[in-house]
């Protein structure tokens, strides 16, 4: 009985070692890995991830986007990709291919594996972490200029796993000016630093609102929190993205604002953020 248990453990270890090597090999083919995280949900993290990926792909770069939010995947919705589109599988090689999205982006999400959009993924941590490792190691990403990873909010298992599995990644923290969002964002920055990951900076989303009637700029929340967090942790404030109602509606329709509304205030602000990100990681 003892020998049988050792054999089973050896097989499991060999499979894990193989997957970890596959992850290492895959990640070595990708020039820049950027993970988008937030302390809490609802701050526009996925909106930032999708529009960052689209901005990079729109100038001819090879881009992949990985939706790491296993229980709440929204990337394909915001990219306008049908959940009926499924990754192709190479059973013999034990590999699968991410779907091809807008601008020839490679896209992988749990939403592409469920039977219908209303089906919940009711999994504990180990199962979610197993899927994340499959997404990184068993998917055929090939050579990319950028891989954008949209992580779930907070410091959950998936977030910790990604931060451990991709040692040369860059981290972007998304927040709103709201105090409760900033409290959690600060914890997320601290976690990234404890894990010795490079924090590119903070993006403040929904930073204000331009009145369509009088043109006056209105702060939705007391300003200054993101600037203070950036100063306290000695990281960059990459930019502030204003709130625009129409852009939220378009996101629900799968129309990223940097492509659909390139002249909007949000798109202009976001382009400056993307420019700054490229200057940092490519130089």
Q: Superfamily at the CATH H level?
A: P-loop containing nucleotide triphosphate hydrolases
Spans with pLDDT under 50 lasting ≥5 residues? none
- Order of SSEs, N→C? HEHEHEEEEHEHEHEEHEHHH
Helix content: 40-55%
What count of structural domains?
A: 1
Report how far the terminal alpha carbons are from each other.
57 Å
The first-level CATH class is given as Alpha Beta
**Coarse structural class:** alpha/beta
What fraction strand? 15-25%
User: CATH topology, anyone?
Assistant: Rossmann fold
- Gross morphology: globular
Q: How would you characterize the largest beta sheet?
A: 9 strands, mixed
What would the average pLDDT be, to the nearest integer? 91
Q: Could you tell me the number of beta strands?
A: 11
Tell me the Rg in angstroms: 19 Å
Figure out the total of helices.
Answer: 10
Based on the coordinates given, report the CATH architecture.
Answer: 3-Layer(aba) Sandwich
């Amino acid at each position: 009985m003892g020998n049988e248990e050792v054999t089973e453990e050896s097989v499991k270890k060999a499979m894990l070692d193989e997957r970890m090597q596959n992850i290492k090999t895959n990640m070595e083919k990708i020039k820049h890995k950027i993970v988008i995280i937030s302390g809490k949900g609802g701050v526009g993290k996925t909106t930032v991830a999708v529009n960052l990926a689209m901005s990079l792909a729109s100038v001819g770069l090879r881009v992949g986007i990985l939706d790491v939010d296993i229980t709440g995947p929204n990337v394909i919705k915001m990219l306008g990709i049908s959940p009926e589109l499924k990754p192709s599988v190479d059973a013999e090689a034990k590999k699968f291919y991410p779907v091809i999205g807008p601008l020839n982006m490679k896209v992988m999400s749990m939403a592409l594996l469920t039977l219908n959009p209303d089906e919940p993924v009711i999994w504990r941590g180990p199962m979610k972490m197993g899927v994340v490792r499959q997404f990184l190691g068993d998917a055929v990403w090939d050579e990319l200029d950028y891989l954008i990873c949209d992580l779930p909010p907070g410091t959950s298992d998936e977030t910790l796993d990604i931060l451990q599995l991709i040692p040369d990644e860059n981290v972007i923290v998304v927040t709103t000016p709201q105090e409760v969002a900033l409290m959690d964002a600060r914890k997320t920055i601290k976690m990234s630093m404890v894990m010795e990951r490079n924090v590119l900076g903070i993006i403040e989303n929904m930073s204000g609102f331009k009145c369509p009637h009088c043109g006056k700029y209105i702060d939705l929340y007391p300003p200054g929190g993101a600037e203070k967090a950036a100063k306290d942790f000695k990281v960059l404030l990459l930019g502030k993205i204003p709130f625009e109602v129409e852009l939220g509606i378009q996101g629900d329709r799968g129309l990223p604002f940097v492509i659909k509304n390139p002249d909007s205030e949000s798109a202009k602000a976001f382009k400056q953020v993307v420019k700054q990100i490229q200057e940092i990681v490519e130089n």
